[in-house]
Design a protein that fits this description.
Elements lengths: L1 H13 L1 H7 L1 H20 L47 H11 L3 H4 L16 H15 L7
Bound molecules: iron/sulfur cluster (SF4).
């Protein structure tokens, strides 16, 4: 999953000249539709528009009934399931497990995530990340997040 995710990110960055020519704003709706279909299938993505999968062991925190983006609440059951939905595995138990399998997962899961910006709901994270990474590359910087 990490490789697929990184591959998509790489492709989005490579295609930047084309995205610029068409216009990022104009592309948002069609790309978001593809993103929703693909990530919905693979990660049960809720299209928050500010993806943190690479920092959460590829477990989508927006599936937490409390939408916690910085670790679990105090209610994780002894079997690792959610206190709100007893039949559901806690997304943060899955995040911890997933992050151990990822290249920089254990460092990235420590990064504190900002509160969700609801104005981005339904928009493409792929395009947002591509633009962010390109801006970082041109300024010679990087962040530990994505
Ligand atoms: S963090 Fe947001 S964009 Fe990423 S999979 Fe979850 S809902 Fe989708």
């Amino acid at each position: 999953m990490e490789r697929i995710y990184n591959g998509v990110e790489w492709l989005m960055i490579k295609l930047d000249p084309m995205w610029r020519a068409i216009g990022y704003e104009r592309l948002d709706r069609p790309v978001a539709a593809v993103e929703k279909a693909v990530k919905g299938l693979l990660f049960d993505c809720q299209m928050c528009g500010q993806c943190v999968l690479s920092s959460t062991g590829m477990s989508c925190p927006m599936n937490c009934p409390k939408t916690l983006r910085n670790g679990p609440c105090g209610g994780v059951r002894s079997n690792g399931n959610c206190e709100v939905k007893p039949d559901m595995r806690c997304v943060w138990v899955e995040a911890a497990r997933g992050s151990r399998k990822m290249r920089e997962g254990e460092q990235k899961i420590q990064v504190v995530q900002l509160p969700v910006d609801r104005s981005r709901e339904g928009k493409s994270s792929w395009l947002r990340e591509a633009r962010k990474k390109i801006a970082q590359q041109s300024s010679g910087g990087s962040d530990g997040n994505s």
